[in-house]
From TrEMBL:
Domain Pyridine nucleotide-disulphide oxidoreductase dimerisation: 345-449
Organism lineage: Bacteria, Pseudomonadati, Pseudomonadota, Alphaproteobacteria, Hyphomicrobiales
Pfam families xrefs: Pyr_redox_2 (PF07992), Pyr_redox_dim (PF02852)
Single GO term (MF): flavin adenine dinucleotide binding
Co-factor requirement: FAD
Species the sequence originates in: Pseudaminobacter soli (ex Zhang et al. 2022)
Name of the protein: FAD-containing oxidoreductase
NAD keyword on record: yes
Cofactor note: Binds 1 FAD per subunit.
Family per similarity comment: Belongs to the class-I pyridine nucleotide-disulfide oxidoreductase family.
Active site residues per record: H440 (proton acceptor)
Residues given in the record as FAD binding sites: K51
């Protein structure tokens, strides 16, 4: 016995729910299967809880700096982790609940709880129940990578999910991995009052960024009292007192870091190993589903969206995958993955807003480029806010005069970078920005000045 649908969506992450509703509104009978929490990583263990906690950490930091602003706080500033977590839990639960109401309230949608596994290219099994459909969409996302590092089975180690359940503040949090997850959690817990050491295998933080960006972030976080161990090439763990000792085998410094807690933040792996994909869907060597530019897999009528296809590891890329698939299937609009520009932010304080090429990539491209750079200390609004760390950098094609990329590390950098991103989508010339009249006093108001002083990239 099986139940037939027009479409099956596996995973209620950042693409699945929107696609489900869109297909149902087009008249299809759609089954959406989720094995854990509606909203997937972003809502439950990713963006939403972390940015809610980053907001608490920012409040703590501003309270600690209050005297610099002439604000007097009577007693010592403290952080109540239980209340930080309760605030985070409310934001997460509200979001999950509103998603549930939306899906339950949409005619044509059947929401199923359970783990989905393929039986054949058109049949999926959930807890013994078999579903069939002509069209199947994978939105299964990913989870923290926890490799079998020496000693890891002898200790208790946190991931981005379990750290969100802590009820006491770590005395000394050792973070393994100096990229998005490690830096966001590292700065947050430092501001809550933990001692924090970040261990990174590479020679610098956020290695995808330009060296000046990596260095500036290291300097900013070091000034907040975070310790770093770079070049930690040979990692191992062992129990130590009530905590963990992490052997780092660096070329210099102490060979071991002992902490009360360890957070592993060394990347993600796709949830494709337990889907029964031997039904024929091709994976790459890291387990990501292979897709074409319109997100079709190697099996006709199976699509893969979001992090599991290896074409983006962000909420906005997963959501754009939904837009691409819906446009192709329902609107006869051939949208493609390669239509989008890479963009993301690192939500440290100050944040890093990024779009398009780095300076290094522009140099490697061999094209004729222009570069502009300005320190945040020159930006009036940053001075007024007392947040002058960082700099802005733009890269422009010298021939077309269109933007190739930008790195905005500084106050509101995550927002300011959209001024450049919008112009990239408009295929507009840098001169459009140079001639614009921005609002004073904002950080964005310095973009025309920055872009009016471009130099050849050597
Ligand atoms: C700590 C952290 C912070 C982040 N911060 C940001 C940020 O600020 N901005 C940003 O853009 N991105 C951020 N990300 C990345 C972002 O969360 C992910 O890229 C995004 O959630 C991926 O969405 P997705 O739809 O591909 O998958 P997911 O959101 O992971 O959803 C997949 C869903 O599929 C379900 N599932 C898996 N297998 C099955 C199965 N066999 N049967 C049924 N259900 C299944 C899972 O339970 C899950 O609910 C962050 C990630 C982390 C870990
Ligand atoms: N702000 C955001 O948008 C945001 C925030 C958090 C996470 N994310 C998403 O989550 C994904 C995963 O983030 P991440 O930070 O876990 O992974 P990552 O792949 O970005 O970085 C992993 C880091 O760990 C280091 N590393 C790997 N093995 C190591 C080892 N044995 N010892 C020490 N260091 C080691 C790597 O050199 C690298 O710097 C990102 O790709 C991103 O898409 C996004």
């Amino acid at each position: 016995m099986s139940t037939s649908y027009d479409a099956i969506v596996i995973g209620a992450g950042q693409a699945g729910p929107s696609l489900t509703v869109r297909l149902a509104k087009a008249g299809m009978r759609v089954a959406l299967i989720e094995r854990k929490y509606l909203g997937g990583t972003c809502v439950n263990t990713g963006c939403k809880p972390t940015k809610t906690m980053v907001a608490s950490a920012y409040a703590a930091r501003m309270a600690q700096r209050a005297a610099e602003y002439g604000v007097v706080i009577g007693s010592q500033v403290g952080v109540d982790l239980a209340r930080v977590m309760a605030r985070k839990d409310k934001v997460v639960l509200d979001s999950r609940q509103s998603l549930r109401s939306w899906l339950r309230g949409t005619a044509g949608v059947t929401l199923m709880e359970g783990h989905a596994r393929f039986r054949s290219a058109s049949e999926v099994e959930v807890d013994g129940e078999v579903l069939t459909a002509d069209k199947i969409f994978l939105n299964v996302g990913g989870r923290a990578l926890v490799p079998d590092l020496p000693g890891i089975r002898d200790i208790s180690c946190l991931t981005n999910s379990s750290i969100l359940e802590l009820d006491t503040l770590p005395e000394h949090l050792v973070v393994v991995g100096g990229s998005y997850i490690g830096l966001e959690f590292g700065q947050m817990f430092r501001r809550f009052g933990s001692r924090v050491t970040i261990i990174e295998k590479g020679s610098r933080l956020v290695h995808r960024e330009d060296e000046d960006v990596s260095q500036a972030i290291l300097d900013i976080l070091s000034r907040e009292g975070i310790g770093f161990r770079l070049n930690a090439e040979c990692l191992s763990f062992k129990p130590h007192g009530r905590g963990v000792a992490v052997a780092v085998d660096c070329k210099q410094g102490e060979p071991e870091v002992a902490g009360s807690h360890v957070l592993l933040a060394i990347g993600r792996r796709p949830n494709t190993d337990d889907l029964g994909l031997d039904a024929g869907v091709a994976l790459d060597e890291s387990g990501f589903v292979q897709v074409d530019d319109q997100l079709r897999t190697s099996v006709p009528n199976i699509w893969a969206l979001g992090e599991c296809n290896g074409r983006g590891a962000f909420t906005h890329t997963a959501y754009n995958d939904y837009e691409i698939v819906a446009a192709n299937i329902l609107d006869n609009d051939p949208r493609r993955v390669t239509d989008r520009f890479p963009c993301y932010a690192l939500f440290t304080d100050p944040p890093l807003g990024r779009v398009g090429m780095t300076e290094t990539e522009a140099r490697e491209s061999g094209g004729r480029c222009l570069i502009g750079r300005m320190e945040m200390a020159r930006v009036g609004r940053a001075v007024e806010r007392g947040e002058t760390d960082g700099f802005m950098k733009v890269i422009v094609d010298a021939d077309s005069r269109q933007f190739l990329g930008a790195s905005i590390l500084g106050a509101s950098g995550d927002e300011v970078v959209h001024g450049i991103l919008d112009l990239m989508y408009a295929r507009a010339s840098v001169d459009t920005l140079v001639r614009s009249v921005p609002i004073h006093p904002t950080v964005s108001e310095l973009l025309p000045t920055l872009c009016g002083n471009l130099q050849p990239l050597k």
